[in-house]
Amino acid sequence: MNEFLAGIDDPFQREKTEEVFNWIKHKYPHLKTEIKWNQPMFTDHGTFIIGFSVSKKHLAVAPESVTITHVEDDIVKAGYDYTKELIRIPWNKPVEYSLLEKMIEFNIWDKANCTTFWRK
Question: What class has domain 39-109?
């Protein structure tokens, strides 16, 4: 994860991304941090919980489409742009940690008995 963070050129973006990762590690210490497909993600018992990517304009959050549908109203309330697969948190907006928490909690609960990396 440190290698990924070191690769973020903009110091503000690196710090904000690191803050999000540290929040997740502190709140969900049982989640494993991994880099797959050059993207940082958090997993639980070998199943995907949430992933991230960095672009010039935003931090992208990918919790899987089922989860986005589950929290769609909260995404709209936060004012974030989103697609069926990812949510874009603009660098100039605050991170809505309650939204991240809702997505992570839902995925941990919904995938408790999941035996595959992705939902089927």
Answer: alpha beta
